[in-house]
Amino acid sequence: MKKIIKHKKKGHLILFVSLGALVLTTVTALVLSQQSTQLLTQAETTTTNVAVVEDAFVSASNPTRNYGTDAALKVDLDKKTYVKFDLAALAGQPISSAVLRVYVINNSSSTQEVKEVLDNNWNESAITFDNQPSIGATVGQLSNTDLNTWREIDLTSYVGQKAGQVMSLAIDATGTNSNNLYLSSQESANAPVLIVQTETGSQATPIPTTSEPSSVPTTEITQQLTATPTVVSPTVGATEAPTATPTPITGARNINVTNATELTSALSNAQPGDVITMADGIYKGKIKSTIPVGTIFYTASFIIAKSGTPTQPIVLQGTRNARIDGGGLGGYYGLYLITANYVHVKGITIENANKGLILDKSNNNLLEDIEVKDIHDEGIHFRAISSDNILKNSYVHHIGRNKTTGVIDNHYGEGVYVGSANSSNWCTYSNCQPDTSDRNQLINNTINNTGGENIDVKEGTSQGLIQNNILGTGGIPGKNADSWVDIKGNNWSITGNQGIDSIGQGYEVHGVLTGWGINNTFTNNSATNVAQYGFWVQNNVTGNVISCNNTVTNAGSGFSNVPCVNQ
To answer: How many Cα atoms occupy the beta-carbon half-sphere of 194 within 13 Å?
Structure first.
């Protein structure tokens, strides 16, 4: 049995305010403020190092050979690595962070995926390619590694699900890897290790306030801030405001913010289960990400780089009058999710930005009832292998504004953009491999007045859903607003959408790269007032189905350039 090592540290939580009395002991701080007062008890953070109990790789070239005693764990198109951890000691623990730490023993520019293993009945002395267990969904990713360095892979949400159990992981190659990855195994000096942090004893007890804030000012910040937002325990039986998000998960922290300083702090310190509520007002920040995409560190007004869990997502919510400002059309991103999983963004507005809401390396997020408007480039973008996200019940409009004039022109400006273009951006966002931003869903949204397509789906993406959206370009002239929906990925379902007014085609399928733009299905959609075809499919792609149950009204070139299929 491998040894589990724990480290504990204690901290004091203190609120500083302009007015009030301060009483300080070695354990607690009591602060009375005009706006909000809290009694915060001592928090304890425990770090647990869980050693690997089994590790080995398998090889398709030698399908019956066992490599359990090898000092290296190898990953390429021919080889796959398995590791196993016993998480019994974490049963019932509130996990705030979990990373898989591995030691790299070669240089690799390729991307590898960490995936769940569906069967723990394997051991390092017997596993081979022929008897390897089945693997499931991707839970983490590793790329651009250097010789003789430690690398950490964030697995917080997945370890939270597996706490108290045995957990197996597979490290698998993606796409056409240009070179392989070698890691140290437990037969060497630098074995894989799972580093887990848990927090206990942290609780906020509200003390009656002396007054309420009278207004929400517009606040601008230009550097990393450390102010602490108000933390309020959930109130049982409280009356829900008309624009509020449904009652938070039991035991979650309610964090109320009123300005950019507090919002920055709340997002940078977010934990699974946090419900961050923005008061009405304009929030304008400027933060540079510390996590690169390729070699680029992007800047945004606000950044979420934390993850929730399937049962305890991180929630950022507010009304449409809670508005994130991106610093102008020539500014930066409005809201940026980077390596953020299980986050819910609800109700708020994102506006006046170079790009609106961007997701990089972020999965299983819900964007609901938000408004994105007055943006220079794309309104919402799922990219850098961001999968299993949902955008629903939202309004995206007036996208593609010129930086100088503010007029929507033909410089691009897509409403919702999924994936990235092979010709120019795969090497930026996905290590020169396909940007497999897969299984994203766009449901019940209104998207109009865009300089480019309302929805642009790129090659490299698969198995997404575009359903029951109301679409329209608003008659905006320009070569990049030539359809409402442009599909270049594979196996997408486009169903129940309504398109009104297009200067070009209604719905398009393009084959810009061999093997992409195939097997997409269009059913029960409508197209009204189209200059050319309601449905148009490029002649170099196959397997696409244009159902005869689609309806087309007032199309200059007719229903479709290919025969429809009765279903």
So the answer is: 32
Q: What is the mean pLDDT of the chain?
A: 83
Q: How many residues does the chain have?
A: 567
Q: Where are the alpha helices (DSSP H) in 171-285?
A: 260-268
End-to-end CA distance of the chain: 58
Global model pTM greater than 0.70? no
Give per-residue pLDDT as tens, 245-254.
Answer: 444 443 479 9
Angle subtended at Cα 168 by Cα 93 and Cα 104, rounded to the nearest 5 degrees? 100
What does the H/E/C string look like for 325-366? ECCCCCCCEEEEEECCCCEEEECCEEEEECEEEEEECCCCCE
User: Domain 47-199: which topology?
Assistant: Jelly Rolls (2.60.120)
> Burial level of 219, CB count in 10 A (0-12/13-18/19+)?
middle
- CA dihedral (129, 134, 138, 140) in degrees, to 10, reads -60
CB atoms inside a 10 Å sphere around CB 411: 15
User: Which pLDDT belongs to residue 38?
Assistant: 38
Q: What is the percent of the chain with per-residue pLDDT over 70, rounded to a whole number?
A: 80
Q: How many Cα atoms sit within 13 Å of 316 on the Cβ side? A: 35
Summarised one tens digit per residue, pLDDT across range 33-50 is: 333 333 333 446 788 899
DSSP 3-state of 158: helix
**Alpha carbon distance 74, 266 (integer Å):** 40
Rg of the Cα atoms in the chain: 25
522 contacts: CB under 8 Å, gap ≥ 6:
494, 495, 507, 535, 544, 545, 546, 547, 550
- Tokens 């009030």 label which residue? 20
Structure tokens at 236: 């049982």
Query: H or E element: which one contains 157?
Result: helix 156-162
E-strand stretches of 32-155: 37-40, 43-51, 54-59, 72-75, 79-86, 95-104, 108-117, 135-145, 149-154
Query: What does the alpha-carbon distance between residue 111 and residue 335 come to, in Å, rounded to a whole number?
Result: 26
Cβ neighbours of residue 540 under 8 Å, at least 6 residues apart?
511, 517
Strands laid side by side in the 135-145 sheet = 54-59, 79-86, 166-173, 108-117, 135-145
**Pair type for strands 314-317 and 380-383:** unpaired
CA distance 400 to 374: 8
Residue 374 DSSP SS3? strand
Query: Cβ(467)–Cβ(491) under 8 Å?
Result: no
Contact 332, 300 (CB under 8 A): yes
| CB-based contact 155:117 (threshold 8 Å) | no
pLDDT at 322 over 70: yes
**Helix or strand holding residue 161 (H, E):** helix 156-162
Lowest mean pLDDT among 147-161, 204-218, 523-537: 204-218
Q: Is 491 exposed, middle or buried (0-12, 13-18, 19+ CB in 10 A)?
A: middle
